[in-house]
Amino acid sequence: MTRSPNPDARSPSDERRGASSYAATPPVAPAASRSFLLYQSWSSIAGTRSASNTDEVPRSACAASLARPLAPGERIDLDRADVTEITRLPRIGPALAQRIVAWRAEHGAFGSLARLDSVSGVGPRLLDAVRPWVTFSGIPPAAP
Q1: CB count, 10 Å around CB of 124?
Q2: Which pLDDT score, from 0 to 100, does residue 49 have?
Q3: Do residues 78 and 100 touch, judged by C-beta distance below 8 A?
Q4: Mode of pairing for the β-strands spanning 76-77 and 134-135
Q5: 53: domain range?
Q6: For residue 69, what pLDDT is reported?
Q7: Which regions of the chain does DSSP assign to beta strands (E)?
């Protein structure tokens, strides 16, 4: 049996078996590419990428700000914090942090943990986990 010099070419026997060519199979990204893609997604959520798709903040600085643990006694004001600061809280990832910021923009300041419970994905266990680390500077709007 002779092989075609073109690796993307399909033989008649491949057609009979219904086999697809190797070119149709999506490549698996190497570990370095996966970490870069993760960085890109964090950067777009954290707002550190410019419109020209060039990095304004070095990779290490962005990763350091996201991974920086809270110092003893340090608290994050959920009525003013941005997505990057909120992701520093325990059990809160970038997607939930984005929902928290979006809810606050639509409904106003939280004012207390009770209103934070209104955000999709926040429940009693998460409230217990973040209670020692959060503060609220705003006053929630009066109920209608």
Answers
A1: 9
A2: 46
A3: yes
A4: parallel
A5: 31-68
A6: 81
A7: 76-77, 134-135
User: pTM above the 0.85 mark?
Assistant: no
Report CA-CA distances (Å) from 118 to 12, 111, 121, 135.
61, 12, 9, 17
Q: Please name which of 29, 61, 66, 31 lies closest in space to residue 45, comparing C-alpha atoms.
A: 66
Q: Is the pLDDT of residue 58 over 80?
A: no
> How many other CB atoms sit within 10 Å of the CB of residue 110?
24
Same domain, 50 and 88: no
What is d(CA 21, CA 13) in angstroms, rounded to the nearest whole number? Answer: 12
If asked whether residues 122 and 90 sit together in one domain, one would say yes
In total, the chain counts a number of residues equal to 144
Q: Which pLDDT tens digit goes with each residue over 11-34?
A: 555 555 555 444 454 454 444 444
Question: Does 82 share its domain with 131?
Answer: yes
Reduced to 3 states (helix: H, G, I; strand: E, B; else coil), residue 49 is strand
